[in-house]
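Researcher: Please translate sequence to C-alpha cells.
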Amino acid sequence: MLAFILRRLIQAVIVMVTVAFISFLLFQYVGDPVVTMLGQDATPQQIQELRASLGLDQPFVVQFWHFLVNAAQGDFGLSLRQGAKVSRLIAERFPATLELALVAAVIALLVGVPMGVYAALRRGTFLSQVFMTISLLGVSLPTFLIGILLILVFSVTLGWFPSFGRGDVVQLGWWSTGLLTAKGWHHIALPAITLAIFQLTLIMRLVRAEMLEVLRTDYIKFARARGLTDRTIYFGHALKNTLVPVMTITGLQLGGLIAFAIITETVFQWPGMGLLFIQAVMYADIPVMAAYLCLIALIFVIINLVVDMLYFAVDPRLAVGGKAGGH
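Model: Translation complete:
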C-alpha cells in the first residue's frame, strides 16, 4: 500500500510540474503583462523598469523556477485586470464552485444509481425505455442549451426559480456558503440540475451496463441456486460489486464537474471560478488563468489519488495482484 501511494505521489508531482510549465508559458506567449499593466502610452524606460522589478528580464529557466516556487506557496501574483492578489480572488470564488459541483454530484448519484438499477432489472418495460431515452438526451444535448431551456421554463415561464446569482450566503470565517439559507438553495437548484444532467445519465448507463454484466456471472447463478431472494441477490450481491467501478468514475467526474462548471456558471452568472476564468480569458488576465489551470490540475490529482486508494481498499484483488507481482 505504501509503495502504491508513493508511486501515485511521484506521478502527481510530475503532472503538477508539467501543468505549471504549461501555465508559465502563458506569461511568455499570451500577450505582454508589462504593456497590459502600463498601457500603450508607456515609455520604453517605464517598460524596462517594470520588467526588471517583475523579474521578466531574467533567463527563462530562472523565471520558471521562481514561478514554480511561488505557485507551490499559492502565490500567483496580482490580477492584471482587478489589481488584487490572485490567491484572494480564487479563495473568494472557490466555495461557490465547490458547492455547485458537490450538489450536482449528489443529485447525479441519488438519481442516476436507482435509474440504472431499475433499467437493468426491468429491461423492456415502458419506464425503462423512458429512462434510456432521457439518458440519450442528457448525453446528446450541450450543457448551455440545457441551462437555457431550464431558465426558459422554470424562471421565465413559471417563475419558480431565479435565473442568476447565488442568493443569500453565510460567512463561516473565510468560507462563504449558500447551503445554510433558503434563498441559497433556491438559487443553486437550476445550475446544479444543469450541471448534474450529463453526469446523471453517464452514471445511469454505467450502472445499468455493470449490473447486467454482474447478473450474468457464476456467483449470481450460485446464489439463485441456493434459494436466496431476488432482493438479497440484487442489492446484497450484484449492486455491491456494481458500485466499485461506479465509485471510480464518480470520483473522477467530481473533478470534471469542478473544472467544467465554466459553461454552467456563465449561463447562470454563478459567481464561481469558472466565471472568473472566462472573464480572465476575455481580458487576457494571465495570472488568473495560470492559477486556475494549476488549481484544477491539483484537484484532479488529489481526487485521482483518493479514488485510487479507495479502489485499492475496496477491491482486494489489487492488493493480491500487487503482492504476486512483488514476489
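Researcher: Any highlights?
Model: The two ends are 15 Å apart (CA to CA).
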